[in-house]
Structure formats: C-alpha cells, structure tokens
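Q: What residues go here?
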C-alpha cells in the first residue's frame, strides 16, 4: 500500500496528490509550512508547530480555512492512516490557485496538504563525530524584508546557502546577517557553548524561532546551564568551547569544524552530548499520544 496524502479535504494516493500549475505556492512560494516529528507514537510539541503555522499564515495575511485543532487532528490522522510509529510530517498551506499575477486576491481557497513519511536524518557518523559546516557568502534575508518567524514556502535564500555548503563538501552552511552577525543554518538553529553558558542568535536577526531550540534551552536550564539569545560575530562562535545545531529533522547535532577552524577540541563536547541524550529522552516520553 502506498503513501496516503491529506489533500484539500480528503486522503488520496501519493500519485493523485497533484497541485495546479496556477497554485501560488508553486508560482511564487506564497504559503507557509511546518515540519513535525513523531516518536514512538507521540507527536512532539504539536501545539507549538500549529501556533507557528497559524501565526506565520496571519503574518502573510493568509487565512487558513480550517481551525487549528482540526488541522492537528488531520496531522494525527495522516500519521495513523500511514501506520507510522515514527514520522516526519510536512504540513503545507498555500495561497491557492490563482492566475499569472502576484495578486493574492485572485486566489480562491488556500490549498492544504499534509504528508507523513519516514524520516531521513544526517548520517549517524556526523552525530558521533560531529559535523563540519561552512559559512555561506549568501546573507540571510533581512527581517524587514520577510518576518523570520514565517516559515514560508520560499526557501531560495536558504537553498542558495545550502548550494554553497554542497560545493564546500559539507552538509550545512551558517548564514550571517548583512552586518555579519551569526543567524542560523539553512534548516537548523545554531548554539555556541562557552563554559556553562549557551548562546544562540535572537530571532530578530532573521532566524526562525526554533521549537527544538526552545526545547534545548529548557533542557539546559534543567541541567543548571544558562542560555541567552544574543548577537554574536563569527569569531565568538569560532572561539566557543562547543557548537551544535538544533532542528526538528536534525534534533541536536554537534559541529566540530567551521570552514578551516576546529571548534574546541574537534570532537563533540560534553554539554552537547548531554543535550543530545536529554533531547532523545524528552522526545521519547513527551508528546501527544496516538
Ligand atoms: N531554521 C530554519 C531556517 C528552519 O527551516 C529551523 C531553523 C529549526 O526549527 P525547528 O522548529 O524545526 O526546531 C528550521 C526548520 C529539512 C527541513 O528537510 C528542515 C527544517 C524545516 C523543514 C525541512 O532539513 N528546519
């Protein structure tokens, strides 16, 4: 049995889940999305993801024609119908089908689809040994051009930086503001650890408000570590004791090298490893059961 997709109100086979070439999600990247995980038949922090989806939609004046709690029910249904104990869920809401013009008023109903599939993580080796990243030349979108809290369908800014990563032979790229402050990676937030303090760029610089980032800050507090949202130049990151990335897909992953600079001792640090373990434990026991 193939994958079933929730598509504009009903469940259809994967090959029948097709979007119009006039959909503004495709024509202009006009829409919002979420990436959500489930672990051991528990959806991790679903309300946070729903809140971000609906707040992002509101920020781009996109009214989702479905109540938030119904959307969450559809997410769970999509996981269950595909019999997934551990799932990666993509929820997408586009402006809908319009004409060949930017005007969002020409679009009818927003298109809504939900895909639940297996998960693809970074290779295990990168979790065990830490990963190298590069600093991209491509600067992060300015927050006054696009509110960074909007997880929009337009990821070209991130993709351009990811292409730089691929060319540099690494899996992730760190993005800076036009003023040269550390913001985030293309699909993950970033942390520097110095002593017992965690530092992560504040969202106002242009970073997505990460749900994993927030969870890690809570876990760190429980371990007696303090965290601060900060403005940080790459030099401060390069001089940190430890560095790691957080994201729904990546979870917590150590960074041991940034371009030619080795971070700390070049192996995943103690605090990073403690947080990786704590996050695994949290995701396996917390969450909405189905
Ligand atoms: N920053 C950006 C730009 C993201 O896209 C994060 C940070 C981490 O946020 P959460 O809430 O997930 O902790 C993200 C989310 C992928 C993929 O396929 C990654 C994300 C979203 C969708 C797909 O790697 N990262």
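A:
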């Amino acid at each position: 049995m193939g994958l079933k997709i929730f598509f504009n109100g009903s469940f259809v086979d994967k090959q029948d889940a097709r979007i119009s070439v006039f959909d503004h999600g495709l024509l202009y990247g006009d829409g919002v999305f979420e990436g959500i995980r489930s672990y051991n038949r528990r959806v991790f922090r679903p309300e946070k993801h729903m809140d971000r989806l609906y707040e992002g939609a509101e920020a781009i004046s996109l009214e989702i024609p479905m109540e938030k709690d119904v959307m969450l029910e559809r997410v769970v249904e999509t996981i269950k119908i595909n019999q997934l104990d551990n799932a990666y869920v993509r929820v997408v809401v586009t402006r809908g089908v319009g004409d060949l013009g930017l005007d969002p008023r020409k679009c009818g109903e927003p298109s809504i689809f939900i895909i639940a599939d297996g998960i693809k993580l970074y290779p295990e080796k990168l979790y065990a040994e830490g990963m190298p990243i590069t600093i991209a030349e491509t600067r992060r979108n300015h927050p006054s051009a696009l509110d960074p809290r909007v997880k929009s369908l337009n990821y070209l800014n991130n993709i351009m930086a990811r292409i730089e990563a691929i060319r540099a032979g690494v899996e992730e790229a760190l993005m800076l503001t036009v003023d040269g402050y550390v913001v985030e990676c293309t699909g993950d937030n970033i942390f520097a650890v110095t002593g017992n303090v965690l530092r992560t760029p504040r969202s106002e610089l242009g970073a997505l408000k990460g749900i994993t980032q927030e969870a890690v800050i809570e876990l760190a507090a429980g371990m007696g570590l303090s965290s601060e949202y900060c403005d940080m130049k790459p030099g401060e990151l390069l001089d940190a004791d430890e560095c790691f990335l957080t994201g729904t897909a990546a979870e917590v992953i150590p960074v041991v090298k940034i371009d030619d600079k080795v971070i700390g001792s070049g192996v995943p640090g103690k605090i990073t490893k403690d947080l990786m373990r704590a996050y695994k434990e949290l995701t396996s026991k917390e969450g909405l059961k189905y």
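A: Context that may help when evaluating the design: The first helix runs from residue 24 to 28. The first strand starts at residue 4 and ends at 7.
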